[in-house]
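Note on ligand handling. Small-molecule inputs were canonicalized before submission; formal charges were left as drawn, and no protonation-state enumeration was performed. Where a ligand contained multiple stereocentres, the stereochemistry in the source SMILES was retained. For coenzyme A, this procedure yielded the string shown in the input block below.
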Amino acid sequence: MHIDADEVTVWWIDQLETRVDEARLGARERVRADSMPYSPGRREFVVGALLLRAAVARFSGRDAADVEIDRSCPDCTRWHGRPRVVGRVDIEVSVTHSDGLIGVAVGGVGTRLGLDVERVARVPDHPDAGLVGLTLDDAELATLGGRSVSSRQFATYWVRKEAVLKATGEGLRRPLTSLRVTAPDLPPVLLRAPGDLTARTTLVDLLGHESSSVAALAAVVPAGARPSPKIVQGDGRTLLE
Ligand SMILES: CC(C)(COP(=O)(O)OP(=O)(O)OC[C@H]1O[C@@H](n2cnc3c(N)ncnc32)[C@H](O)[C@@H]1OP(=O)(O)O)[C@@H](O)C(=O)NCCC(=O)NCCS
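Structure output:
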């Protein structure tokens, strides 16, 4: 697969279909993995970390062993923050996982990326008003007109918004209700957000209706730049073989 510098590539992998060699972990990655109990979450981290380094290696023409990722957290000493490629401010990345499905996004030229996935089965069917109220803003609630929201619809709202907040690096420090996106059956658009974020953000739904998961990618360009990156998806297994 050929990759252009102005493309964003999203690589997906299902950990059940993946055999990974933990010997390929870097020193910091190993410390983080060893701090986690043997669990699906630990394996998701390991697969995601190796897939991310392989994806950055493909993007930048380097060997995966030479790619270093920093996950320093601005709020604490744990190594669980937004991933950043050491020594390459021109490469932006994002990582997501849900119930064994792992995605990484890699792009260049200063486009901030946020990728988010949710297995629909993990979301409660017709989530209660409390959870919906923590996620949807007043206009989104008005659009529902009192109807309950299905798990797939709710997950779609969620991933679109979390993708944006991962692109800004704020994550759930900022309430999801501070954003407004289009209804799940409409093409994804960021309608309301702090500052000039709506003008700089491209939102894309990924994976498709037939998938058991929903996913979204937010790409946020610098002020004044062209907000239309080309997005390509690939099979992560081809990177880890
Ligand atoms: C970013 C965040 C929304 C991810 O939530 P999640 O349910 O774990 O969802 P995902 O699986 O989609 O994403 C996990 C990935 O997000 C990335 N990430 C972590 N913090 C991030 C941030 N601030 N911005 C963007 N991405 C972030 C990491 O790559 C992580 O995967 P990895 O640790 O395996 O590399 C959530 O961790 C968050 O809100 N973090 C910031 C606020 C916070 O709680 N900080 C901790 C204070 S000590």
